[in-house]
């Protein structure tokens, strides 16, 4: 992915966590957002963000298609 690549996360339940992970020798959490049902977040990978972790039920729209996270039941 390049810096112009975005993902769109749409929460399917309250309390979905979106966690940004750092780039570099040591991967660390650097940013967390909490989304409620129906909320949408547009995120971009940057020089500091190399990965994102999504906890909870959500649809994740990427240039490669749509993925659904399952969450805990």
Describe the structure.
The chain contains no helices and seven strands. With about 70 residues, it is mainly β. About 10% of the residues are buried.
> What proportion of the residues is helical, as a percent range?
under 10%
Order of helices and strands: EEEEEEE
Give a short account of the largest sheet.
4 strands, antiparallel
Task: Name the poorly predicted regions.
Answer: none
Feature tags:
mainly beta; 73 residues; single chain; four-stranded antiparallel sheet; three-stranded antiparallel sheet
Give a concise summary.
With 73 residues, this protein is mainly β.
List the SSEs and their pairings.
Elements: E1 6-11, E2 16-22, E3 29-35, E4 40-44, E5 49-55, E6 58-62, E7 65-69
Antiparallel strand pairs: 1-4, 1-6, 2-3, 2-5, 6-7
């Amino acid at each position: 992915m390049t810096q112009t690549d975005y993902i769109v996360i749409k929460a399917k339940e309250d309390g979905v966590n979106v966690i940004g992970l750092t780039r570099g020798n040591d991967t660390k959490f650097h940013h967390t957002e909490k989304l409620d049902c129906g909320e949408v977040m547009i995120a971009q990978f940057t020089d500091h963000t190399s990965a994102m972790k999504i906890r909870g039920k959500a649809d994740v729209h990427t240039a490669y298609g749509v993925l659904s996270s399952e969450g805990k039941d």
